[in-house]
Amino acid sequence: MGSAAASPPPSGSPLPSQDELKRVAAHRAVEFVEPGMTLGLGTGSTAAHALDRIGDLLRAGALPGVAGVPTSLKTELHASRAGIPLLPLGGAAGPARIHLSIDGADEVDADLNLVKGRGGSLLREKMIEGAGERFVVIVDESKLVPRLGCTGAIPVEVVPFGAPHTLGLIRKVFDGLPGFSARLRTVKKDAAEEMFVTDNGNYIVEMFFEDGIRGDLRDISDSLLRITGVVEHGMFLGMATTVIVANRDGTVTLLHKKK
């Protein structure tokens, strides 16, 4: 895993906010974009800064021929407003060739494995970012973790039919593990609790670990994906080619996938 760091800001400068850190990392990621590329467009607050920057460069004529494949309905709307031409992942003319995907992440471990999808877009994100030639991830340093699952939920997308049963099968994968819990995600609507529904019409199971996941992540991934009713999970293993980290001191670090 290689790295490169930018120079820190002048002494005495105020520390940037988390949103400013996200913007810095996003703008650095957009430097990888070249004219004529088709991009996988990520979802979330960090990726939104990249969308805005791409839109600015398109309007300035700096990125001719660039188009994007959105990972969610929210991203599709944002990209359209930013003036980014959009393409489907697949269609009558065949799938778009995705040269580069740019997205944020909820967690990044030392091997550049990710947790993504706490916003609920993990299936489309994994389909599009997995189809691309390169995947650049943009985070601030708070997202770096020793193990996946340290800072919050790992989402699992499941079909609505028999969802409580599928939840029980997911719990069995981690049967007896201290500090493990799982639940179906709900949202408040009109003062009532309703099931959270993804863009694909599915539900989300949230898995929680007291001190992160320990064990072989690929074995755990396989165990989850073998459960009938599970569509996909939010562990993105071995997919990121570069992670851009905006540090609290104002520097930027680039982490690269081991070859």
Short description:
Helix content is 26%, strand content 25%.
Q: Provide mean pLDDT, rounded.
A: 92
Question: Roughly what fraction of the amino acids lie in strands?
Answer: 25-35%
- Number of DSSP helical runs: 6
Overall geometry comes to globular
Strand order of the largest sheet: 1-16-15-7-4-2-3
SSE arrangement, N to C:
EHEHEHEEEHEEHEEEEHEEEE
Oligomer: single chain
> Which stretches are poorly predicted, pLDDT < 50 over at least 5 residues?
none
Task: Characterize the largest beta sheet: strand count, sense, and whether it forms a barrel.
Answer: 7 strands, mixed
Number of strands: 16
- Helix fraction bin: 25-40%
- Category from helices, strands and their pairing: alpha/beta
Distance between the terminal alpha carbons, to the nearest Å?
8 Å
Catalytic activity: aldehydo-D-ribose 5-phosphate = D-ribulose 5-phosphate
Family: Belongs to the ribose 5-phosphate isomerase family.
EC number: 5.3.1.6
Protein name: ribose-5-phosphate isomerase
List keywords for this structure.
four-stranded antiparallel β-sheet; seven-stranded mixed β-sheet; alpha/beta; 6 helices; 259 residues
Any overview of this molecule?
The chain is an alpha/beta fold and 259 residues long. Helices cover 26% and strands 25% of the residues. It contains six helices and 16 strands. Strands 1-16-15-7-4-2-3 form a seven-stranded mixed β-sheet, sandwiched between helices. It has a four-stranded antiparallel β-sheet with strand order 9-12-8-13, covered by helices on one side. A three-stranded antiparallel β-sheet has the order 5-6-14, with no helix packed on it. α1 packs across α2. The longest helix is centred in the first third of the chain and has 15 residues, at 45-59. The chain is globular. The termini are close together. 40% of the residues are buried. Residues 1-21 are annotated as: Disordered. Pathway: Carbohydrate degradation; pentose phosphate pathway; D-ribose 5-phosphate from D-ribulose 5-phosphate (non-oxidative stage): step 1/1. Belongs to the ribose 5-phosphate isomerase family.
